[in-house]
Design goal:
Layout lengths: L9 H9 L2 E4 L2 H10 L6 E3 L5 H13 L4 E4 L11 H10 L12 H9 L6 E6 L4 H9 L7 E6 L4 H12 L3 E6 L7 E6 H7 L9 E5 L11 H4 L2
Parallel strand pairs: 1-2, 1-3, 4-5
Antiparallel strand pairs: 5-8, 6-7, 6-8
Length: 227
């Protein structure tokens, strides 16, 4: 789950109880989840730091006939997550991969944004460095699909400022700590949201939803003309 432990599905609980091994990005997080539901399956760490060496070992376990559940620290495995490497290796070895649908911050944020979401593009975390990040944002200037971004608390204000400078003062939805105790959903123009973001409250993981660009016949951005 991305926050609330009740977001996990009945099928996921059954799978976690029935497999031989759980490969977890963060074993502490997964151990708390397992403890909450009385799951005693053995855990093994699999993350970006050990993915190459541990991936080979996990494949050996799979080839021996065991089943492994892949769990990310929060949300859906392989989405902004090193688990994609293991899934790719499993496919290459002819091992069956079965998705277990569950929580996703990107989809949850889309559903609460109120923006048009028949077409969208997931960008995940943009580069940390300002210059490189601004370059990526400039590439989104004419993107007509709804855009999904992730950001850490210590970089979210800088990201919003860059978005306003390059894309204009668009309406956005900024969602924090989804499904957790301090969940917060804000929607409005970037300037207004920045004014509400007191430094002491900029905490937790953020998901940002940006409506795509709409160009009128004169080539101006229709999303700005509304204001």
């Amino acid at each position: 789950p991305i926050g609330n432990l009740e977001d996990i599905t009945l099928r996921a609980l059954r799978i976690l109880k029935g497999v031989s091994l759980i490969a977890a990005e963060n074993t502490d997080h997964t151990r708390r989840l397992c403890g909450h539901y009385g799951i005693r399956t053995r855990l093994s760490s699999y993350n970006q730091h050990n993915s190459a060496s541990k991936g080979t070992k996990l494949l050996d376990v799979l080839k021996a006939g065991a089943d492994i559940a892949l769990v990310t620290s929060a949300g859906t495995p392989t989405v902004s997550d090193p688990g994609s490497m293991l899934v790719d290796m499993a496919h290459e070895q002819g091992i069956t991969v079965s998705p277990i649908p569950g929580p996703s911050a990107a989809i949850a944020a889309l559903s609460a944004s109120g923006f048009k979401v028949d077409r969208f593009v997931f960008m995940g975390f943009l580069p940390n460095r300002g210059g490189k990040r601004r370059k990526y944002i400039r590439g989104l200037l004419n993107e007509q699909r709804t855009i999904i971004l992730y950001e850490a608390p210590h970089r979210v204000v800088g990201l919003l400022n860059d978005l306003r400078e390059i894309l204009g003062d668009r309406r956005v939805a900024v969602l924090r700590e989804l499904t957790k105790v301090y969940e917060e959903v804000k929607r409005g123009y970037i300037t207004d949201i920045l004014m509400e973001m007191a430094p002491e409250r900029v905490k937790g993981e953020y998901t940002i939803i940006i409506p795509g660009s709409e160009r009128d016949d004169e080539g101006t951005d229709a999303t700005l003309k509304e204001r």
